[in-house]
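FORM 7B: Structural annotation worksheet

SECTION A. Query
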Amino acid sequence: MAPGAGTPRLSLESNTPITDHFIDMSETLKISDLHVAVEGKPILRGVNLAINRGEVHALMGPNGSGKSTLGNAIMGHPNYEVTDGSITLNGEDVLAMDASERARAGIFMAFQRPMAIPGVKMAEFLRHATTNVRNPRRREGEELIPMRQFRKELTEKMDQLRMDVDFARRYVNDGFSGGEMKRAEILQMAMLRPKFAILDETDSGLDVDAVKLASQSIAEIGGSEMGILIITHHDKLLDYNTPDFTHVMLGGRIVETGGVELARELYTEGYDRIRAAYPEAAALDAEMQQATAAV
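SECTION B. Predicted structure
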């Protein structure tokens, strides 16, 4: 199991196109009493979660319990209205930032269903995004990462992910298979090197071999340098990313937290014990399921 909170870690990374510096492993993404509504309907009802850089957290729960809503709220999706609570990054108010500012601050999300961007090549997209994240003060029109440096790093990451070089010439997610989309998201994470990464069901729609490759790639890329929140229904994505903490979401709340053994239990035995232990949250979850089915 990876070391837990409070274990000191230090490593080097190049976080700008120009200089290297030590990573501050004391950095924390903190969610406090978070309430979120979608189209006026409450989804999250008081979520509390703190992720330290270098930790792996798994978030599990039944369909419709609010897992993806949490990720979208953290990233600032405009359809998700925060009605109460706070999100902070090292004490700074994340809710005061727009989505691009959150990305530049070091928060990343690999989407469950990424959007296609016809006409924009992966390499062009990644060069701009990588420059902006590593140089947050950059303004549009200012110099990008030198092409030679960018190509070298991109090629190395694609080799690591076993991706053909032609992939970089394709338009972002345009005509991609489900597996290609997920690998493209992991490639973005590899290039952007965020402080905190939210992976929303990266394993969904993938076969066993693809899930294994995704799990290995996330572990190699994230290592001990990122705080990672893995949203999943399964345990295979956790094979190479042993969670320091497993959280169970039910009825828009995190009702229980444990270690990797909790993830194994949920995968093999389901949520009956959880529902019985937290009847109020289970009732809210049932209401949410009915509301979703009625839409």
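SECTION C. Observations
The radius of gyration is 19 Å. Residues 26-271 form a domain with the Rossmann fold fold (CATH 3.40.50.300).

SECTION D. Sign-off
Analyst initials: ____
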